[in-house]
């Protein structure tokens, strides 16, 4: 017996228009050279396979997973920050109960990863990984330290601006998103080929905003970052 | 209307945030082992890659990291057929997503079983030019063991989908 959809239960997803995502072949980001397909993508209809949602990792969330500053014996070094926002679809509807995974460098710009050889100190009190679910209103919130910038070997004098990696699922295989959150006013943004590989009209959506109302007195600075996933293809509000 | 957030690469340190995971069968079911390599346009293995495997009958998604030679090996429930467009039935398959350093978005493809008689009639596979369909076929190596390489560029480049 084939797996069968409940009639009308699963909306198709809107197709992604040009001007949103980076070009898979972005010469400024050298690693794309041999890692982008040269053949055109084949357009296929969205079936049950693409429109169902992988429920992933919901049982594996520990109480400290949304606070990257309490995962070790002592607090990590660096500027404590709160990052919060909403996961929304293109119709501004919340995406509830979806897994968000984040990872980042420490305050010195060093990742707790065996292949990161940059000569900046590791912090024994910082792993740099977090995970959480969005709530019924699509809201998420986590506590961390502001990551440092770091050099990479893409080109001469190349530095990545401070960023936090985000991975999200949404409600369908087709709604998945992996992105990076940047910080407002970072002078390195102008020189970063990864940030700038996103189309000009879209890249600033990845820059968080400083928000004094999220900032907690005597404790942590607050940043706001909303994330928008693919919405349903046909909606009553469509004009 | 809200505007989509752009994709960015997972970068080289993806393992910090994205843990491996397995699909846990809710009912006893036959299992298949898939082994293969993720390869770049030079035929070299991609060691900092991640593949995600999904089927609507799974209780969760399977996620596998590539090793130093771009290799991956995992076991999942053998997927059943699935309803397709316009009353058709899709052959057993897995949806596959590829993420890696140097991959700016996600590349989406499918795995079909070369030895399944339903594969040839699959309505989605038929949308792929005939000379490229073989890139989506997992080849049996022994009972319940299959070989499936994903080539992101060049000779025998895997078919990727716009969904």
Structural class of chain B: mainly beta
The total count of strands of chain B amounts to: 12
How many whole angstroms does the radius of gyration of chain B measure? 16 Å
General shape of chain A? globular
Dominant shape of chain B: globular
- In DSSP terms, counting alpha (H) and pi (I) runs of 4 or more, how many helices of chain A? 3
Largest sheet of chain B: 9 strands, mixed
Amount of beta strand of chain B: 35-45%
Alpha-carbon distance between the termini of chain A? 40 Å
> How many domain modules of chain B?
1
Tell me the CATH architecture of chain B.
Sandwich
CATH fold topology of chain B:
Protocatechuate 3,4-Dioxygenase, subunit A
Q: What class do helices, strands and sheet pairing of chain A give?
A: mainly beta
- Report the sheet-strand fraction of chain A: 15-25%
CATH class type of the domain at 64-229 in chain A? Mainly Beta
What is the CATH architecture term of the domain at 64-229 in chain A? Sandwich
Secondary-structure map:
The complex is a heterodimer of chains A (239) and B (163).
Chain A: E1 42-43, H1 48-51, E2 80-89, E3 99-104, E4 129-133, E5 139-145, E6 150-152, E7 158-160, E8 163-168, E9 177-182, H2 193-197, H3 200-203, E10 209-210, E11 221-224, E12 227-229
Parallel strand pairs in A: 2-11, 2-12
Antiparallel strand pairs in A: 2-5, 3-4, 3-8, 6-7, 8-9, 10-11
Chain B: H1 14-17, E1 31-39, E2 49-54, E3 62-65, E4 71-77, E5 82-83, E6 89-90, E7 93-100, E8 107-113, E9 137-142, E10 145-147, E11 150-151, E12 161-162
Parallel strand pairs in B: 1-10, 1-11, 8-9
Antiparallel strand pairs in B: 1-4, 2-3, 2-7, 5-6, 7-8, 9-10
Commentary on this structure:
The complex is a heterodimer of chains A (239) and B (163). Chain A has 3 helices and 12 strands. Chain A is mainly beta and 239 residues long. Chain A has a domain at 64-229: Aromatic compound dioxygenase (Protocatechuate 3,4-Dioxygenase, subunit A, Sandwich), CATH 2.60.130.10. In chain A, strands 2, 5, 10, 11 and 12 form a 5-stranded mixed beta sheet that branches. Chain A has a 4-stranded antiparallel beta sheet with strand order 4-3-8-9, with no helix packed on it. Chain A has a two-stranded antiparallel ribbon with strand order 6-7. The longest helix of chain A is centred in the last third of the chain and has 5 residues, at 193-197. Chain A is globular. Chain B is built from 1 helix and 12 strands. In chain B, a hairpin with a 5-residue loop joins strand 5 (82-83) and strand 6. In chain B, strands 1, 2, 3, 4, 7, 8, 9, 10 and 11 form a 9-stranded mixed beta sheet that branches. A two-stranded antiparallel ribbon of chain B has the order 5-6. In chain B, 2% of the residues lie in helices and 36% in strands. Chain B has one domain (14-151): Protocatechuate 3,4-Dioxygenase, subunit A, CATH 2.60.130.10. The model of chain B has no long low-confidence stretch (mean pLDDT 94). Chain B is an all-beta fold.
């Amino acid at each position: 017996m084939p797996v069968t959809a409940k009639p009308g239960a699963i909306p198709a997803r809107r197709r992604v228009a040009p001007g949103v995502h980076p070009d898979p072949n972005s010469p400024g980001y050298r690693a794309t050279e041999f890692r982008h397909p040269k053949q055109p993508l084949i357009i296929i209809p969205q079936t049950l396979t693409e429109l169902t949602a992988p429920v992933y990792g919901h049982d594996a969330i520990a109480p400290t997973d949304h606070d990257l500053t309490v995962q070790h014996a002592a607090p990590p070094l660096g500027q404590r920050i709160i990052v919060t926002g909403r996961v929304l679809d293109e119709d501004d509807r919340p995406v509830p109960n979806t897994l968000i995974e984040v990872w980042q460098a420490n305050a010195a710009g060093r990742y707790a990863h065996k292949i990161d050889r940059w000569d900046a100190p590791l912090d024994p009190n910082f792993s740099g990984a977090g995970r959480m679910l969005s709530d019924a209103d699509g809201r998420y919130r986590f506590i961390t330290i502001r990551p440092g910038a770091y050099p990479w070997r893409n080109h001469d004098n190349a530095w990545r601006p401070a960023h936090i990696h985000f991975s999200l699922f949404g409600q369908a295989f087709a709604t998945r998103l992996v992105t990076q959150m940047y910080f407002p006013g970072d002078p390195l943004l102008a020189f970063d080929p990864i940030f700038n590989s996103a189309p000009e009209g879209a890249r600033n959506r990845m820059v968080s905003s400083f928000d004094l109302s999220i900032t907690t007195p005597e404790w942590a600075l607050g940043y706001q970052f909303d994330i928008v996933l693919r919405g349903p293809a046909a909606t009553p509000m469509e004009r | 209307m809200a505007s989509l957030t752009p994709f960015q690469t997972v970068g080289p340190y993806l393992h910090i945030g994205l843990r491996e995971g397995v699909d846990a069968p809710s009912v006893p079911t036959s299992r298949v082992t898939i082994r293969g390599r993720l390869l770049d346009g030079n035929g070299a293995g991609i060691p900092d890659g991640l593949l995600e495997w999904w089927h609507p009958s799974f209780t969760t998604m399977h996620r596998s990291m590539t090793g130093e030679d771009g290799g991956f090996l995992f076991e999942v429930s053998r997927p059943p057929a699935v309803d397709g467009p316009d009353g058709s039935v899709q052959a057993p398959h897995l949806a596959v997503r590829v993420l890696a350093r140097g991959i700016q978005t996600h590349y989406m493809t499918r795995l079909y079983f070369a030895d399944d008689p339903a594969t040839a009639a699959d309505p989605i596979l038929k949308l792929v030019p005939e000379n490229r369909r073989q890139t989506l076929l997992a080849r049996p190596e022994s009972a319940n063991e299959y070989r499936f390489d994903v080539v992101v560029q060049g000779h025998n480049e895997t078919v990727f989908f716009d969904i």
